[in-house]
Amino acid sequence: MKVILAIAAGLTAASAATAETVVTQWDQFAQSGISAAGPAMDELIATCQPSLGGATVLRTIAPSIGIRDSYRLAVSAGKTPDLAYTWPAASVLAGYARVGALAPLDDYYAQYGWDHINDFYRGRNSHDGHLYALPMEQDLMGVYYNKALFAEHGLAVPTTYDEFKAAAERFKEAGIIPVSFGNRDRWPATNTFSLILGLTAGLEAEKAVLFGDEPWTNPAFKQAAENFQAWANDGYFPRGFNGVGYDEANALFLSGKAAMTITGTWVLQDMIRGADSIDLGVFMLPPMADGVPAGTMWGEGSQWQLAASADPAVRDAAAAYLDCLTSDESRKVWVEKGHTVPIGTTPDELAAWGADPVVQKFFAAGLGTPDSNFYDLHTTLPESVTQVLYPELQRLVGGDATADEFLAAMQVAWETAIANGERWLP
Amino acid sequence: MSRPARLIQTVILILFAAYALAPVYLVVLASMRSEADLFAGPLALPWPINIENFRRVWQDSGFSSYFFNSVKISAAVTVLVLLSAPLAGFAFAKMRFAGREALFALFLAGLVVPAPSVIVALYGNLQTLGLIDNQIGVILPQAALLMPFSVFMMRTVMQDVPDELIEASTMDGASLFGTFVRIVVPIARPGLMSLTLIVFLFSWQEYLLPLVVLQTETLKPITVGAASLQGRYGVDYGGIAAAGLIAFAPVVALFLIMQRSFVRGLSAGAVK
Amino acid sequence: MSDRTAYLFLLPALVLYLAFVALPIAQVVGYSFFDWDNGIIGDYVGLSNFARLGGDNVFWAALGHNAIWVVLTLAFPLTAGLILSAILAERNRHVIRWLSAIYFIPRTIPLVVAGIIWGWIYNPIFGLLNYLLESVGLGGWGGAWLAQPDTALLSLNVVGAWTFFGFCVVIYLAAIQSIDPSLYEAAEIDGAGWGRKFRDITVPMLRNSTLFLGLYAAIEAMRFFDLVWVTTQGGPGYATEVLTTHVYKTFFLVGDFGYAATLSVVLLAIVLAISSISFFVLRAK
Q1: What is the pTM of this model?
Q2: Do C274 and B43 lie within an 8 Å CB cutoff?
């Protein structure tokens, strides 16, 4: 019922759009790679075209790897696409909102009743009290593992950190890479570290630093940095991981040469399609310190945003179209055709819709700990801090900087960003 | 020279030839491997030879469009430079006028300007002119950045044109421009040929300018397309190799055919 | 000939050059005195952007890498070019033509593509280099090449040298062929061997070419960008950061236009200083 009303409302709202109205759309939904939900997007464009009220969508597929830079260039060139689905979320979004490149969406949220976006996500998509984006994909991080290799070595799925370490040691002895990891692209380590940080320091310690006055150089953060470095020192990762691409690391895992790889749901599509030769499973990394509850890194890596420069009729049409893209029917299409799970989708729905077992497992586990799930540094830090995080993580995990040096460098960048008013607060 | 000494020298020559060619050979091998098996070892001979990688890259990944964009942009830059640099080179070589030294020094300074250092302002200007995401926005700055080298080279070339021929022509009542077109250009033809080839080569190789100016996929040249493959193709080295080959084979072929002309142009600045 | 005709001849080249090179340079200098936020200009801040240079460790690391690149380029491709051209000059016409063409081929390959090819060769897991070392029993020498701070810059320089040594051969060869053969004949009569002729005749006679190539190498070492950007993006850590990548990141990734302009001004000043010094040295000869 809600859907019918929403579509009806959309039609009225978009009535100002005419046949000449064109909505330029940039998205990352390619046929392979990260966010490879291309087949779902293709179908939904056809489905949602009518909600545009006569306007047409001019679509550009900008693969995930390049859309972030292209979008930044387009904004500074004054050619912001009307509608875009870009990354990395909260922090850069705030930056664009601050300089007035994006249109506030408060009215559309009210008009269409986008209530499936809870306060956590609303916070991440707000700046200065206004909503500037509609998040869609729900991202979680977990451990993809090769079931056959675990069985072959008599290992059960680890439920404690000690068991995880024991499994890694066992694989290492057997000459199998315990955890496939490639950080040439510089961003993958930000996710891995975010996961380790949350499971070592916990959500409250993160909040104290990200939104409070606690410095990066605190004991819990130091322990997390040391844990990450220890994995590298202990030979959990493939040789030369700082020179291995993200795709290459995934290929290494899918070829059966590595027992696990730790990454997010954004690559589920590729993993499921590539898992012909291995028996793919997934589990959540257990807590890594006493007193830290189970949880995972979650959030939305990307979000839909509208250009402030777009014509009001175009914005109205685009909002109606977005409402269609995130409707209940459409969520099912994202799951079925794209292995992508939109925000608001429950584990029960995934089961009812016959989602891939790996998808079901991943989300049942990840959504089961909503109170202790934590932040992704990559999508939470302002860009100036991210550009320090990249090289400093390469140094940390490569053994070229100590945990103290790493945190000291982060603290300097952090203080500068705060002084420049770049910090994102929920 | 003793035989062993000569033999050692020959070995050195061959080793460096291998250094130059081995990576090229490797790419050719990889591009023709049927099922680019990542773990079979990069030296396994591709058999049967197949061109599926090329077909896929050319048709499905938009390389035909990248390729023709490169041809278009490079050709336009070359034409623009050919229409302006020889005239300026001629003026600097053969004419006396106020401010000649200062203007030449101005061009000379541009010889070393790094493109990344002007991009900061250039970007804003192109935006004001509405040339962002437009191939003209790549062509004009690129021709300008190549101008110092081209003017410098053309001055060297024009200095070799005998004064008597120019004087004889102007005495007969021809205008200086007419003389330039009818007398100077034919004499300077080998130099102009070199300039054409070098400017074309340099603009074919340009990466940063199109990377930042062009946002629409169908406008981008082959250097930008090739670089974007790394993320898009993941571990499909066969596809990446085929794309790389498409990106450099035409210019390598052009160089091998026109080697003499290339070398003359490149060494023009060095020897004089 | 009137001045006006000369200016008309200059006009097309001059307009293009002023509009798209000279003007942006002037603007960059201007930008460096302002504060910027995500590409939007803010307050006049005087020299405060320049004051940041002192405490910017990445800037100093990058500058150091540019300097190392100059030294490495002078040490390897330039020397290799000198020796190869001296050897080659004594061979027959066809050998000269073919080998100098082969040596020059890498120079015609776009640096972006060269970076992709060599990035693959150096790949720690899927790369040819480690594969070759393993197949001859030297697997222990294998490494992560571009991913280790102690080998990254050097490995990258091997790629730079790959594209540059053939150019050196071509330049030197042209110069050697214009040396008066009687000099060598006289030396031979005195019983001079190949090594002595190389040291006493070839090297001194090629001094101008060496100066030119040295200048060229130094300028290129300050300007190069493509190669680093497609292989390491300045990493691991800051191990291959150079001035141009620092400018690019500050400008396009952080959006701090003012400081990016400041870095550009420094880059320009260095390049112009190198070239004017060399210009006077060359002219003095």
Answers
A1: 0.87
A2: no
